[in-house]
Amino acid sequence: MWTVIYIAPTKSIAEKYQQALAEEGILVQLRPVGSSHQQANGSTEILVPESEVEEANEILTGIIGS
Fold first, then answer.
1. Which residues are 46's β-sheet partners?
2. For labelling alongside 29, which of 2, 21, 57, 65 has CA 20 to 30 A away?
3. What does each C-alpha distance from 17 to 3, 11, 37, 52, 55 come to in angstroms?
């Protein structure tokens, strides 16, 4: 089951975090929030498998904190 670990304010930020998590071996999916016409610039959910939530949160916290 996929779990939302973060909601990025824009798709480009979500893609940046997706790449960083993927480089650490975490499976990542992105899902736009809101209506379809806002997908390019709207908020985007970052999802990981439930079994990787803790590790992904640690990695993401390190990225956001730096």
1. 6, 30
2. 65
3. 15, 10, 23, 15, 14
CA-CA distance, 41 to 53, in Å (whole number)? 25
Determine whether 39 is exposed, middle or buried from the number of CB atoms within 10 Å of its CB (0-12, 13-18, 19+): middle
Q: In CATH, what number does 2-65 get?
A: 3.30.70.260
Q: Is the pTM of this model over 0.90?
A: no
Lowest mean pLDDT: which of 15-19, 25-29, 38-42?
Answer: 38-42
What is the Cα gyration radius of the chain?
11
Section 49-54 average pLDDT: 97
The domain locations on the chain are 2-65
Residue indicated by tokens 């806002």: 38
